[in-house]
Structures are given as structure tokens and as C-alpha cells.
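Workshop exercise sheet. Pairs work together: one partner reads the sequence aloud, the other fills in the structure field after running the prediction. Swap roles for the next sheet.
Pair: D.N. / O.F.
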Amino acid sequence: MRQLTDEAIAEVLAANGIGVLAFGETGRYPYAIPVAFGYDADADVLALQLEGGTDSEKHRALERHPYVSITVFEETEPRDTWRSAVVRGKLVETSYEAVETAFATLAKRTRSAPNPVVWGDSASVTPYELQIEEWSGRSFPIN
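Structure field:
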């Protein structure tokens, strides 16, 4: 196992657009969901959107505790290294304009995520920015 540098963590985030978002202090069980996200390394902005109205489990979890973590992982090509990054911080509601560059990164790099161009069309979809407080990353040789 090897610790990733800050530059390598930013590379993992920018190159991938799917992760697992975990909400803190949600009750009896942890609440973790897959999400599409965008990361703009130049602006150090990580953005995502959450579906559902104010009565959804996601929004209730954020009201109780706005601090979350997101885990991202990848297998490099050729298949010789596994890399992962964990980012922690406060998830705050934002505007699409404020995080436009992060969503543009998502659109360029992720084939399987929903198209962010139409995300703003739904009244039940809200953009969020993860205000990064700390991150860590590791790599493991596969062979």
C-alpha cells in the first residue's frame, strides 16, 4: 500500500465521476448511496446533485448532520494498480452556475452518469458542493 499525494488524489477525483456518498449520523444504520459527481481540480470544486424533495431521506440526513464523505476508486490501465480516495467535508446547497466547471468535468469524463445538461430541469433535483475539509488516498499493486 502506498499513500497518494494530493496531486494524485485530485487526479483520481477528476478522472472519475461515480462514487459512494455516505451521510453521517443518520440514525440506526449508515446511509450510503452511489452518486455521480464532478471535480474541477483547478478550482478545487466537487459538485453533485441530489434528487428528492425536502422530505427525502437524503435531505433529512443533511438537516441532521451536513458532514459527509465520498469514496471513489479505480483500477488503472493496464490492470496493475488499484487506487482509492476518500474526501470528507460539509455538503452545502449551491447553484448550478457556482459549480458549472465541476459539472462540465463530469460531462466530459463520465460515460455512464446522467447528462448534467438536463439536471436543472427537475424541480426535485438540487445541486450541492462538497466543501472539502480533508482527503486521503491509497494505491495497491494488483499483481
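Discussion prompt: The chain has three helices and seven strands. What would you look at next?
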